[in-house]
Specification:
Layout: H1 16-38, H2 42-63, H3 70-81, H4 93-107, H5 115-125, E1 130-131, E2 134-135, E3 147-150, E4 157-161, H6 165-181, H7 187-201, H8 208-224, H9 233-239, H10 241-252, H11 259-292, H12 300-309, H13 319-326, H14 330-342, E5 346-349, E6 356-359
Antiparallel strand pairs: 1-2, 3-4, 5-6
């Protein structure tokens, strides 16, 4: 028996004494983060938020096995929020769609969550009306059954079966009414329950996980009472995705006592907030770097690569990698790198084919 088949569904219950301690710690950490960020100044707050939102979009998609271009995501978010960054690039339709959904959730957190708003999110996620090779019903509730499975075709393992299609509209009406009228529950706990409740209904043909995480982000923004996002729940879920799927499955096969789910959600949220210290440190280091080289003559290619090195650059920077990133010749790439080395910004390491460069 799945949780949605129980007679007392969806009357969730939990150990309030146990959960309240964890909730108090999370709330304290939220206050600390907002205080830290207010001390950074507007420009650095923008940079930190851009980094967080970019990570949120990328990692929420990665959980579903979709890998987005980070520069496209960053450029799309910056353009929509009016944040000036160097080296913006055009984004593909699927990138624009998930960015549009995430920003609508976090920047319009105080707007009511309605079925039409969810339909708009779903349509933005699937602009072609297809999920991979398959045509799906977009912008409306599913009309067929929904099973969550894994494994090879013909040898699938069934993890969960959602309510039948005939019940989806009524289930979603009850869920959305609760989202907008429940005022007695702490806003962070409400984010955890909303995530679980929505993904249990699984109302769409596809995209339910990403929309569930967007709903949680919307509710966390309501908890913060702020459009500014400085921690990424999706990034932490992606890092712990096996545990994420495990706790969801056990909860959906359990009774209405969701204490273990709330415990996991709050612990995961706390770990996501701990990453904010690293975000702040990187933001300050980035600001100090650009202040140091404010009067240094740099071309667009150099500026772009330095920005990537100051972020989460993967592997070593070689001449060939520089040429590929900047879409230039290896001769031009070598001249750019040698120029940055002479200016004391980069240092060369290794020799021959193993030659690479890193920040001083």
């Amino acid at each position: 028996m799945y949780v949605h088949e129980r007679n007392d569904w969806p009357n969730f219950k939990w150990n309030a004494d146990f959960i309240s301690t964890k909730l108090g710690n999370v709330r304290h950490r939220q206050g600390r983060i907002l205080g830290q960020m207010q001390g950074l100044g507007f420009r650095l707050q923008e940079e930190a938020m851009l980094k967080t939102l970019t990570m949120d979009v990328i990692k929420s998609s990665e959980i579903e096995g979709e890998f987005l271009n980070p520069e496209q995501v960053r450029s799309s978010i910056a353009r929509r929020l009016g944040i000036e960054i160097a080296g913006t690039i055009a984004a593909e339709r699927n990138v624009e769609g998930i960015v549009e959904m995430m920003l609508d959730a976090t920047q319009r957190y105080d707007a009511a969550l309605t079925d039409e708003r969810l339909f708009d999110w779903h349509a933005a996620l699937f602009p072609t009306g297809r999920s991979g090779m398959y045509k799906i019903k977009v912008g409306s509730w599913r009309e067929g059954g929904m099973q969550v499975t894994s494994g090879l075709m013909g040898k699938e393992t069934l993890h969960y079966e959602a309510p039948v299609a005939e019940k989806v509209a009524a289930e979603m009406f009850r869920f959305l009414e609760w989202m907008e009228t429940e005022q007695d529950l702490d806003a962070v706990l409400k984010a955890a329950i909303a995530h679980l409740w929505f993904v249990t209904i699984h109302p769409f043909d596809d995209g339910n996980g990403r929309i569930a995480r967007a709903i949680a982000d919307l509710q966390l923004a309501r908890a913060d009472e702020s459009k500014q996002r400085f921690y990424s729940m999706s990034a932490q879920i992606q890092a712990e995705r096996n545990n994420y799927y495990g706790i969801l499955e056990s909860t959906q096969k359990g009774d209405l006592d969701i204490t273990p789910w709330l415990e996991w959600f709050l612990d995961c949220l706390m770990r996501s907030m701990e990453q904010t210290d690293e975000t702040i440190a990187k933001t300050l280091a980035r600001a100090k770097f650009w202040e140091t080289y404010r009067d240094t003559d740099l071309n667009i290619r150099q500026h772009k690569v330095l920005g990537m090195l100051l972020d989460d650059f993967f592997g070593n920077l070689s001449v060939s990698k520089y040429a590929k990133i900047t879409k230039t010749s290896t001769d031009t790439a070598l001249r750019d790198l040698q120029d940055l080395t002479k200016k004391g910004i980069l240092q060369q390491e290794g020799s021959g084919r193993g030659t690479h460069y890193k920040l001083q």
